[in-house]
Design goal:
alpha/beta, pyruvate-formate lyase- activating enzyme, two-stranded antiparallel sheet, 10 helices, 9 strands, binds iron/sulfur cluster
Length: 312
């Protein structure tokens, strides 16, 4: 007989597509939107060079181009996904840069352009922990009466030293504070973490799982460190590649499994890796797609007879 885990499925981790079906009763597709925002780590208010790993072009799908209005980006996204998945409903995913950074009225105006499409049933706002005003949170709380609303915070590391090394421009303390402020309003929080940042030992990486488990977050996205063209790390990599300890895909599978063994079972795992476009990626060039990586993780979880939270 197959075992059911505490999250109610036979999967060995608390997976995101089950969370979506549980929340909406059906498949709901995210559509990425580029609203033309910037971020305080690029416009000079915190810094100008950006986070050392970042080239924002790596997370912008082709249909999502600021040459198009938000309404058109949504329509293009729906036309792209509808034939593939027959999804009926969509979430507008404000992904590029910091999507809660700016004048509150201007932010609201952009969100409402996305919500004007009747097939859009909610918003997911990607942002930094130091860019969330109380005014905006009050608006989002009210918006929740009619729409699904979630906030994705880039934490990247829980180690203060690492956050300085990557020129992140905010502290882990600020991540903790943002999580509590958002959670007080019952708005679901997703967290982004990069595993394998320079200077972090394996035990420090695994310690993030314990720190993340203490936060009132609903879901987690893990990423391998990727060196992408146009980033500060790209220059550093050309000068001294040995400064980085990049993982092979198989090594990263084992790391991810060790990590989720230490992760609270209530946290939904949304992603294990990210995939920078091939023309921007310098290293590591794994040449595998997200679904292939997920299959490897699932196979190894079975072979190792382990699951999320087993080591707690
Ligand atoms: S990762 Fe986000 S916060 Fe950092 S530079 Fe890029 S857009 Fe700005």
């Amino acid at each position: 007989m197959t075992k059911q885990f505490v999250w109610g499925t036979e999967k060995r981790y608390n997976d995101y597509s089950t969370y979506i079906k549980r929340t909406f009763g059906e498949r709901v597709q995210k559509i990425s939107v580029n609203a033309g925002f910037t971020c305080p780590n690029r416009d000079g208010s915190k810094g100008v060079g950006g986070c050392a790993f970042c080239n924002n072009s790596t997370f912008n799908p082709a249909y999502c181009d600021t040459a198009f209005t938000i309404e058109v980006q949504i329509e293009k996204g729906i036309s792209f996904f509808q034939p593939k998945y027959q999804a009926q409903n969509y979430l507008a995913y404000f992904q590029a840069y910091s999507n809660t950074y700016g004048d509150t009225k201007d932010l609201i105006n952009k969100y409402e352009q996305a919500l004007a499409n009747p097939k859009v049933i909610g918003l997911i706002l990607g942002t930094r922990p130091d860019c969330i005003s109380d005014d905006l949170l009050a608006y989002l709380k009210n918006l929740q009466k009619k729409y699904y609303v979630a906030i994705e915070l880039g934490a990247e590391s829980t180690n203060e030293e690492t956050l300085k090394v990557i020129n992140r421009g905010h502290s882990h303390e600020e991540t903790i504070d943002a999580c509590h402020r958002i959670n007080e309003l019952d708005i679901p929080i997703g967290l982004h973490m990069i595993l394998g940042l320079p200077g972090e030992s394996r035990s420090q990486i695994l310690h993030h799982a314990s720190e993340v488990s203490k936060l009132p977050i609903s879901f987690l996205k893990l990423h391998q460190l990727q060196i992408v063209k146009g980033s500060l790390f790209a220059n550093q990599y050309i000068k001294d590649a040995n400064y980085f300890s990049l993982y092979t895909a198989d090594e990263f599978v084992e790391l991810v499994i060790d990590f989720i063994e230490l992760l609270d079972p209530r946290i939904v795992v949304e992603r294990f890796i990210s995939q920078a476009p091939a023309d921007l990626l310098i290293a590591p060039a794994w040449g595998i797609k997200n679904f292939e990586f997920v299959a490897k993780v699932e196979k190894r979880l079975k072979v190792r007879d382990t699951w999320q939270g087993k080591a707690l």
